[in-house]
Design brief:
Layout lengths: L6 E5 L3 H13 L3 E5 L2 H11 L3 E5 L7 H11 L4 E5 L4 H9 L4 E4 L4 H15 L4 E3 L2 E4 L2 E4 L4 E4 L2 E3 L3 H12 L5 E2 H9 L9 H12 L7 E6 L3 E6 L4
Parallel strand pairs: 1-2, 1-3, 3-4, 4-5
Antiparallel strand pairs: 6-7, 7-8, 8-9, 9-10, 11-13, 12-13
Protein name: Stage 0 sporulation protein A homolog
InterPro entries: CheY-like_superfamily, OmpR/PhoB-type_DNA-bd, Sig_transdc_resp-reg_C-effctor, Sig_transdc_resp-reg_receiver, WalR-like, WH-like_DNA-bd_sf
Pfam families: Response_reg (PF00072), Trans_reg_C (PF00486)
């Protein structure tokens, strides 16, 4: 997946460090949002629904440990703890709270980028992936031959439904507007109604009923849709 489909929330009260991380992430084609205290971090997380969080521990208002704990209650989004502390206790505590990795300041930007990529590969709900193919537990989508399997049972699916499902599943837990989905699947010059997305989503939901305890195409009212991977996957 191109990096620019990944949104990273960077949380640090040191604005210079935040800006430095943002610069390097954008250079690598990641999308970036920032917060400089704990309350803003939780608010940004709820608003932006990032794919990863880079989280400092020592923050005003709410510290990084509590933010990590709150995020992990509601999401599987990976978290890399970022701190000036190198003590083993701090590292172990962060990992016990659900952090996926830990990096100590000062650090080389290249190391942070490498760790981000490694964590995204390790924590992505796509267990296996090659060009055009996505394999989840109980669900396989293969654009190479336009085939889909649900619970190991092959299923026939129209071309546009297939393309829509593949695109959403390639970007788990990421929200898209109808307009974005139209542009991605039907093309920017499409002249039909945006409600055609709703029709295709409804049909896909019917097909995914047998695995809806694991995955759901969720409606965010007034905004759009996302392919939500449940915590138990």
């Amino acid at each position: 997946m191109p990096n620019n489909l990944y949104k990273v929330l960077v949380v640090d009260d040191d604005i210079e460090i935040c800006n430095m991380i943002e610069m390097f992430l954008k250079k690598e084609m990641f999308s970036v949002v920032k917060a400089h205290d704990g309350e803003a971090a939780l608010s940004k997380f709820a608003e932006e629904m990032p794919d990863m969080v880079i989280l400092d521990i020592m923050l005003p208002k709410i510290d990084g440990y509590d933010i990590c704990r709150e995020i992990k209650k509601i999401s599987h989004v990976p978290i890399i703890m970022l701190t000036a502390k190198g003590d083993t206790f701090d590292k172990v505590l962060g990992l016990r709270l659900g952090a996926d990795d830990y990096i100590v300041k000062p650090f080389e930007p290249e190391e942070l980028i490498a760790r981000i990529r490694a964590v995204l590969r390790r924590t992505s709900p796509k267990k296996h992936r090659d060009e055009g193919k996505i394999i989840f537990p109980s669900l396989m989508i293969d654009m190479n031959d336009y085939s889909i399997k649900i619970n190991d049972e092959a299923m026939s699916i129209p071309k546009k439904e297939m393309e829509l499902l593949h695109f959403l599943a390639s970007n788990p837990n990421k929200l898209f507007t109808r307009e974005q989905l139209i542009e991605q699947i039907w093309g920017y010059d499409y002249l039909g109604e945006t409600r055609t997305v709703d029709v295709h989503i409804k049909r896909l939901r019917e097909k995914l009923k047998s695995v809806d305890d694991k995955y759901e195409i969720k409606t965010v009212w007034g905004v759009g849709y996302k392919f939500e991977v449940k915590k138990n996957v």
